[in-house]
């Protein structure tokens, strides 16, 4: 349930500089090596993890995880007392399983899968006794299934939402796990979303209101009645996350009457709100619920670092034990139905995630697995958590990673300015966090400082900070990034700076090169929009009921002519002629969020002006690169590209294109070694159609 505060998000100079690096850091004193360490092989960072997504069955007898089977991530299951006896229970051969979970009857593992990244997910079940795999939601092409609920009180069925009747709306169905029989429970008359109770019944519904506000409706035999209303300032920082055990209260995060979202329970009978947990600096971002009572045992908030606190006195001792035994920032991911076994992931900047099982009776935490043991003996770099200031006084929680040996005296500032990559998170309704970050570690190993900034609009920092981003795409949101770059350069951290990111981070990259063309040495855009008008007009149908509360409020409605003009003016496509430096673009052809047209149009505009752009397209990907072969080809290209504009070290493109679907659609000549790769397409699988 990590970072659920934005439950309705669809994705996606300094007047005063920040303080010196805060003590929230891992930045050990290091002498600059006389000879640079050998490069860490790129595959160590971008190949599939050895294992990930640890889970435990409700009865505690089985454990499961995702791991490669013939190179593709599948679900593996083992007895909890003998993990070495694990075997793969799913049979995906092209695209890895993205997420899996247990049915409460302990007989089935459930998982989601789409086609080539189109996000039209189906829900599948695996019968652990027979091995049979069944598509529980065999909807027509173009329709989508979402899991709405599981319940210990009804272990043999699940509630799902399907939009096969109306592509904008999800109807509620029950699916029998044993027979696959599907029963309609409720047709959707126009709700933006449902809340399903412990009996797997739609109990509440969200109604979008004109202007962007929302009502939470109680569904009754006679119709509906309004249980609560959330104004336009609160819709992005409030939402429900389940019912308590007695089905009389809905558990929520709620920012009404406050700035940071608190964890509350809302009485369904009378609308009374009881505050359970709050933090003045940050939203409540995660909770751990008792599996029987569904009451909050512990909660987390995150400003600079993620911080867990116990709410249940009985759980306080267990949380203290866990913190004493497990190093790193924690994420609780599963627990047995009796509450005795908890599965958690822990990581730190210099250690990739490891999963643990904590036994509350024995008071012991046992390592379940490491996700990337190949990096266990590699010298990874620490991360500094910084609180920078924007030019108008906002606090910008930011994270900095320096190359090995750059900070000999350990003061957080390198001895000489470093070539730097500003790595911008997507969303924009998401956030960067302290901990292991593959891109930070990979780039720092290549000799770059890496800076990530939680610009206004990022989640977790209260509704004022989030709503400060309204109508500020390419405005104050971008100013925040520029202010952080200025801090880095003024303080001696950075020399030349590149900008890189995915989704909104890709948009920020394009904005950086078009709106502030003298700031950056080059840019890397991954599935980023270039035109805010065509972006919103191409959104999937099932986003339509929610657009008024988020995208229209923050960016504009393209059907409104005055808003349309402003949206165009905030679009990189409007300023292509101002680009002065090279650009690398990566796109998934099946992306339903940021369609290929977004990349096509800016590449065409740059080509008309003879501006240097390299364009990689992946026909079997969506909003990002799920297949490891595709990740390897793109980040190998990125590494060579950054070296050409920032001068860092790079591992030459070797066999990195093997098995990839990559199409180099333009500009192979601008990246060292890329033209040679595409000319050998028969041996690598790479394809070129231009450049």
Question: What percentage of residues falls in helices of 4 or more residues?
Answer: 10-25%
Q: Any guess at the CATH architecture of the largest domain?
A: 7 Propeller
Instruction: Summarize the main sheet.
Output: 10 strands, mixed
Globular, elongated, flat, extended or rod-shaped: what is the shape? globular
Can you lay out the helices and strands and say which pair or pack?
Blueprint: H1 42-46, E1 52-56, E2 62-69, E3 72-79, E4 87-88, E5 100-102, E6 108-113, E7 122-127, E8 133-135, E9 145-149, E10 157-166, E11 169-176, E12 182-186, E13 193-196, E14 202-208, E15 214-220, E16 223-230, E17 239-243, E18 249-254, E19 262-267, E20 273-277, E21 284-289, E22 296-302, E23 306-310, H2 313-325, E24 329-335, E25 341-348, E26 351-359, E27 364-370, E28 384-389, E29 395-401, E30 418-424, H3 438-445, E31 449-453, H4 463-467, H5 476-490, E32 494-502, H6 504-515, E33 523-526, H7 532-537, H8 551-554, H9 561-569, E34 583-588, H10 596-608, E35 613-618, H11 628-646, E36 663-666, H12 674-679, H13 681-684, E37 687-688
Parallel strand pairs: 30-31, 30-32, 32-33, 33-34, 34-35, 36-37
Antiparallel strand pairs: 1-2, 2-3, 3-4, 5-6, 6-7, 7-8, 9-10, 10-11, 11-12, 13-14, 14-15, 15-16, 17-18, 18-19, 19-20, 21-22, 22-23, 24-25, 25-26, 26-27, 28-29, 29-31, 35-36
């Amino acid at each position: 349930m990590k970072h659920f505060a934005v439950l309705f998000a669809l994705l996606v100079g300094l007047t005063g500089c920040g303080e010196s690096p805060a003590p929230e850091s891992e930045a050990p004193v290091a002498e600059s090596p006389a000879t640079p360490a050998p490069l860490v092989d790129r595959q160590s960072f971008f190949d599939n993890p050895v294992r990930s997504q640890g889970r435990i069955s409700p009865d505690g007898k089985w454990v499961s995880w995702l791991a490669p089977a013939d190179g593709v991530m599948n679900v593996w299951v083992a007895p909890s007392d003998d993990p070495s006896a694990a075997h793969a229970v799913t049979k995906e051969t092209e695209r890895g399983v993205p997420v899996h979970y247990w049915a409460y009857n302990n007989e089935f593992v459930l998982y989601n899968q789409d086609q080539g990244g189109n996000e039209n997910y189906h829900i599948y079940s695996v019968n652990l006794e027979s091995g049979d795999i069944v598509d529980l939601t065999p909807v027509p092409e173009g329709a989508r299934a979402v899991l709405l609920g599981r319940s210990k009180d009804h272990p043999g069925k699940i509630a799902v939402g399907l939009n096969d009747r109306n592509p904008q709306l999800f109807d509620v169905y029950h699916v029998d796990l044993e027979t696959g029989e599907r029963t309609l429970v409720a047709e959707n008359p126009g709700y933006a979303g449902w809340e399903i109770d412990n009996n797997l019944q739609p109990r509440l519904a969200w109604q979008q209101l004109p202007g962007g506000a929302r009502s939470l409706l109680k569904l009754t035999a006679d119709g509906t009645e309004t249980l609560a209303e959330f104004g336009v300032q609160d819709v992005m920082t409030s939402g429900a996350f389940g019912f308590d055990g007695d089905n009389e209260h809905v558990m929520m995060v709620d920012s009404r009457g406050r700035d940071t979202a608190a964890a509350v329970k809302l009485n369904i009978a009378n609308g009374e709100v009881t505050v359970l947990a709050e933090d003045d600096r940050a939203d409540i971002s995660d909770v751990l619920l008792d599996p029987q009572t569904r009451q909050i045992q512990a909660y987390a908030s995150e400003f600079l670092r993620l911080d867990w606190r116990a709410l249940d006195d009985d759980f306080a001792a267990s949380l203290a034990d866990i913190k004493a035994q497990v190093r790193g920032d924690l994420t609780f991911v599963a627990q047995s139905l009796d509450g005795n076994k908890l599965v958690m992931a822990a990581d730190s900047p210099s250690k990739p995630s490891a999963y643990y099982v904590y036994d509350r009776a024995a008071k012991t935490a046992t390592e379940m697995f490491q996700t990337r043991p190949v990096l266990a003996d590699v010298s990874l770099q620490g991360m500094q958590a910084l609180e920078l200031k924007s030019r108008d006084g906002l606090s910008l929680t930011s994270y900095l990673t320096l190359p090995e040996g750059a900070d000999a005296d350990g003061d957080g500032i390198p001895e000489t300015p470093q070539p730097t990559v500003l790595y911008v998170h997507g969303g924009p309704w998401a956030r960067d966090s302290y901990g292991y970050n593959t891109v930070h570690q990979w780039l720092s190993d290549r000799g770059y400082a890496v800076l990530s900034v939680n610009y206004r609009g990022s989640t977790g920092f209260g509704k004022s900070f989030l709503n400060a981003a309204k109508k500020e795409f390419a405005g104050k949101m971008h100013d925040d990034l520029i202010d952080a770059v200025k801090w880095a350069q003024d303080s001696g951290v950075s020399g030349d700076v590149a900008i890189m990111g995915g989704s909104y981070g890709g948009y920020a990259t394009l904005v950086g090169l078009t709106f502030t063309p003298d700031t950056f040495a080059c840019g890397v855009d991954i599935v980023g929009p270039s035109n805010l008008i065509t972006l919103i007009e191409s959104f999937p149908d099932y986003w339509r009921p929610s657009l008024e509360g988020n995208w229209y409020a923050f960016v504009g409605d393209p059907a409104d002519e005055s808003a349309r003009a402003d949206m165009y003016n905030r679009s990189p496509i409007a300023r292509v002629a101002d680009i002065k430096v090279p650009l690398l673009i990566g796109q998934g052809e099946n992306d339903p969020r940021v369609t290929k047209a977004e990349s096509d149009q800016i590449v065409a505009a740059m080509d008309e002006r003879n501006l240097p752009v390299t364009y990689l397209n992946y026909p079997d990907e969506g909003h990002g690169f799920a297949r490891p072969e595709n990740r390897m080809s793109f980040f190998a290209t990125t590494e060579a590209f950054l070296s050409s504009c920032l001068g860092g070290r790079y591992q030459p493109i070797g066999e990195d294109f093997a098995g990839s679907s990559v199409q180099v659609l333009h500009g192979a000549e601008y990246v060292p070694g890329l033209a040679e790769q595409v000319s050998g397409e028969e041996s690598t699988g790479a394809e070129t159609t231009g450049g």
